[in-house]
Amino acid sequence: xxxxxxxxxxxxxxxxxxxxxxxxxAFLVILACFIxxxxxxxxxxxxxxxxxxxxxxGAENINSMFFTDINAHPNDLVGTIFxxxxxxxxxxxxxxxxxxLSVERAIALKSAKGTGNITKFVADVKKCLQANDIAKAxxxxxxxxxxxxxxxxxxxxxxxxxxENTTLTKEQKVATLQKEVEEATAMEMPSLQxxxxxxxxxxxxxxxxxxxxxxxxxxxxxxxxxxxxxxxSTELSTGISEALINTAFGIATGAFAVISYNFYTxxxxxxxxxxxxxxYSIVQQFAATH
Length: 290
Prior knowledge:
By secondary structure, the protein is mainly alpha-helical. The chain is built from nine helices and two strands, in the order H-E-E-H-H-H-H-H-H-H-H. Helix 3 (87-113) runs antiparallel to helix 8, helix 5 packs antiparallel against helix 6 and helix 7 packs antiparallel against helix 9 (233-289). It is rod-shaped, with a radius of gyration of 29 Å.
């Protein structure tokens, strides 16, 4: 008669994502960053105080909080950034989004790590397994919290069930325990990697949008040079400023996104290695003692 697996409750790791704090809807982050950057661009970078208004027609009647006359010359770096054109707030949105999501990942991975040192936690759980003290190992998981502890806790619960099971063969028990570890790990990975694909996309997108702004600025510069007679120095300087400002923001966005993505990917890899190590130890301990 074929052995049947006992009915068990759904893996506790199904709620593992709740152990990792993080922003679920990145679109709202991007939208909020866009609104902030547009307001900064118009009301801060475009404020009349950042421009030389002497000699500009109608300057004496300016009552608005921002000034967009193309003939006004910037008198500081903030005004020069404003001269970068409409691509600048888009690039600032991308850069601010990378910064916000990087901070969000730092908070999320800190909660995923748990309250104590991961290396010490793994070593303590191994000692408990060697002493066949499952209760103490589960107590360590409750104290540690986080993703690694959630996977270990789910595996230990299954370990206890398989230990009390008298129906399945040893090979079936080991396979069931191994499957539990894999499922618990798979439940944790989405919450660990959440929003990182967006950061990876911004690595390329920031550079491309910056390149687009550079090309637009250079086109304006060449148009100024192509005018009949003396070139329009104002148009020429505006085009060059637009090209360089967009280049700077594009490079900054791409560089920061690459650093952020690689940094947090490495942290996730470390957590994954710890999960794999302790999961392998649980399975091997069960196989050796049963």
